[in-house]
Design brief:
The complex is a heterodimer. Chain A contains eleven helices and no strands. Chain A is mostly helical. The radius of gyration of chain A is 22 Å and the shape is globular. Chain A starts with a helix and ends in an 8-residue tail after the last helix. Chain B is α+β, with helices and mostly antiparallel strands. Chain B folds into two domains: 222 residues, Rossmann fold (3-Layer(aba) Sandwich), CATH 3.40.50.300; 127 residues, Nucleic acid-binding proteins (OB fold (Dihydrolipoamide Acetyltransferase, E2P), Beta Barrel). In chain B, 24% of the residues lie in helices and 35% in strands. Chain B has nine helices and 20 strands. The longest helix of chain B has 18 residues. The chains are: A mainly alpha, B alpha+beta. Bound molecules: adenosine-5'-triphosphate (ATP) and magnesium ion (MG).
């Protein structure tokens, strides 16, 4: 009984520790005074401010472009990669190397990519960030699609071939619909990660078009305006929603 | 079989997986509209042979012909052959209707024609009301029927079935035997049917091939396999068998099988059939229902019987028959079955008994080579 109570207390404290600051951020975004120390009443003022802040909105747009672009590319190639790993090259070493970009410290990857682009004499821009994000997003998509594939019953494909559908048609009619939830889950995860990725983006970004995390970072150094709270709250809601959806898509039935 | 016409011909097919040999110079002919069973213990290569017929595996050597045309390089999706998978392999994201229509849609048939044929086959399997269900919401028996419907709706020349009844419970399995037989009759397609259950093969097949480690041991009708097995392996795999092993001897025109303890007369017709000669290792196989059991009292001189003496270990009443287990004086166990409609023989457990069989009931088979030893993985 005693132990239980202690555990309960501990759990509450951990959750408070984890979500307290975030909760505070959300509350502050609705605080009219804009000061972290004084509650000036509920208002949507900072959301209106945000709407006026073109620099911030542009950065948000850049982030969405990078996240969207890298996610689309990763969804296609990550899925193909997962299929190759599962079906053709069942090889532990290859496996390990695919998933490495997920666990390599960002800073290492960032430096490596920067030297790589310099070596290619490629001007830094949104494109270089997108390419960099593809590097780790492919790994995330591949990892999630692979789990899905390992539950996939290969005789379904054989049945389709047997019933007269050639391999490509079989892929689009049988395999793809059945692993699609995995692809969507992987893509949503990739999108969220890419959306707020800072270190790699910071190293590979061009001077003209920063992503959202980079811009906010630069703002923080000169003092945050409270409309950042509003933006953060919006980003948080979108991320949470995406994660929720990607978790929901874990069922065994097909997507279509 | 009258009007038998060859449909499939398997010629000297060899298939290896690394060091295991899954098909070892397999040759077979399967007739049009025939119900053909591939029977053998686990791992003997039945599924592999079926998958070669479907086109999922390519033979290392040899050929598979359909209507005299070589199928070897025809892709699975171009063969007039369909398969019912052991796991059924129904597409979980499609309704029953769409599962069945899938194969027809690949042929580019008109929607109305597809609809008509799907409805027809749903009637045939007796599940017209389930068209809109997903496979996840069906019972095992229903899934099995849908898998069957999906394969036969394409009206293939041959339907391949890999252990179609294995996943069902026993009662349903026995029902489905009849059902499958009825369906096969109705659609007139040749069925090649894999099973490791000899009872299933005997009760359903027109002919069956008995396989062992990639080799075909014998092909024949159920009666042929049961009554005239080609070797000891087949004799033991098909039905129950009492085996007496020894050496074949001819003394003054009379054939005998000489064992350690005894000599049994062997019908000369059996010697001719088996092709065995004087001095060869051989075995006499006697089916339990061909044996008689009686108390050991006084002089018995019913001349046409071969006799063994032993002790009765067990009597089991099976409803339609009585089963006796006897241990002979040299330690061999025999199984004897008498119809329950006859009076029970006056024997008691623990007592000495006398077991006999008519000379012509003995089946003579070679004990060496293919037949040597016990059937290792008997079902
Ligand atoms: N793809 C494969 N790779 C390697 N070995 C295989 C493969 N397919 C089959 N084998 C081997 O070939 C042999 C025959 O297998 P097969 O599946 O044809 O047996 P089976 O008679 O269908 O057995 P069961 O009754 O258990 O289904 C087995 O020893 C099996 O291990
Ligand atoms: Mg098998």
């Amino acid at each position: 009984m005693r132990v239980r109570n202690w555990l309960r207390l501990h759990t509450s404290l951990v959750y408070l520790f984890l979500y307290g600051p975030i909760l505070m951020l959300i509350v502050l975004s609705f605080n009219r005074s804009g000061l972290p120390t004084a509650w000036g009443g509920f208002s949507l003022h900072w959301y209106q401010e945000l709407w006026q802040n073109k620099a911030l909105l542009n950065a948000a747009l850049n982030s969405v472009l990078v996240a969207g672009g890298s996610t689309l590319v990763s969804a296609v190639f990550g899925t193909l990669l997962a299929m190759g790993l599962e079906r053709i090259a069942r090889n532990m070493v290859l496996d390990a190397f695919v998933f490495l970009p997920m666990i390599i410290p960002d800073i290492v990857l960032a430096i490596a990519l920067l030297s790589f682009f310099t070596f290619l004499e490629m001007p830094l821009s949104l494109l270089t960030i997108t390419i960099s994000h593809i590097v780790f997003n492919i790994a995330f998509v591949a990892a999630i699609v692979r789990t899905r594939l390992s539950y996939f019953d290969n005789t379904l494909e054989e049945a389709s071939l047997d019933l007269g559908a050639p391999p490509l048609k079989t892929f689009f009619k049988i395999t793809l619909p059945l692993i699609f939830p995995g692809i969507v889950a992987g893509s949503l995860l990739a999108f969220t990660i890419s959306l707020d990725e800072f270190v790699i983006a910071f190293f590979t970004a061009g001077p003209a078009r920063p992503t959202l995390p980079i811009l906010i970072y630069s703002m923080v150094r000169f003092g945050v305006t409270p409309d950042v709270n509003a933006l953060a709250t919006i980003v948080l809601s979108i991320s949470a929603l995406l994660i929720l959806i990607s978790q929901r898509l874990g069922g065994t039935e097909g997507f279509f | 079989m009258n009007g038998w016409r060859e449909l499939i011909r398997v010629e000297n097919v060899v298939k290896r997986f690394g060091t295991t040999i899954a098909a070892d110079h397999v040759s077979l002919s399967i007739g049009e509209g025939e119900f053909f069973a591939l029977l053998g213990p686990s791992g003997c290569g039945k599924t592999t042979l079926l998958r070669m017929l479907a086109g999922f595996e390519t033979p290392d050597s040899g050929a598979i012909l359909l209507d005299g045309k070589d199928l070897t390089n025809v892709k699975p999706w171009k063969r007039p052959v369909n398969m019912m998978f052991q796991s059924y392999a129904l597409f979980p994201h499609m309704t029953v209707y769409d599962n069945i229509a899938y194969g027809l849609r690949q042929e580019g048939l008109a929607a109305a024609e597809i609809e008509r044929r799907v409805r027809q086959v749903l009637e045939l399997i007796g599940l017209p009301e389930l068209a809109k269900r997903k496979p996840g919401n069906l019972s095992g028996g229903q899934r099995q029927r849908v898998a069957l419907a999906r394969a036969i709706v394409k009206q293939p020349r041959v339907l391949l079935l890999d252990e179609p009844l294995a996943a069902l419970d026993r009662k349903l399995r026995v029902e489905m035997r009849l059902e499958l037989k009825r369906l096969q009759n109705e659609v007139g397609i040749a069925f090649v049917f894999v099973t490791h259950d000899q009872e299933e093969a005997l009760s359903m097949a027109d002919r069956a091939a008995v396989m062992r480690s990639g080799k075909i041991m014998q092909v024949g009708t159920p009666e042929e396999l049961y009554n005239t097995p080609a070797n000891l392996y087949v004799a033991q795999f098909i039905g129950e068998a009492n085996v007496f092993a020894g050496r074949l001897q001819n003394s003054q025109g009379e054939w005998r099988l000489v064992t350690n303890a005894n000599a049994y007369r062997v019908p000369s017709t059996e010697v001719q059939r088996s092709g065995l000669t004087n001095g060869e290792d051989a075995a006499v196989v006697v089916r339990p229902e061909r044996m008689v059991i009686e108390p050991c009292e006084g002089e018995q001189d019913s001349a046409p019987l071969n006799r063994v003496f032993g002790r009765l270990l067990e009597i089991a009443y099976l409803g339609n028959a009585r089963n006796f287990v006897v241990e002979t004086d040299d330690g061999q166990r025999l199984s004897i079955q008498t119809p329950a409609t006859e009076l029970a023989p006056p024997v008691c457990v623990g007592e000495s008994v006398c077991v006999g069989w008519k000379v012509e009931s003995g089946i003579l088979v070679s004990a060496s080579e293919n037949g040597g030893g016990k059937a290792d993985e008997q079902a």
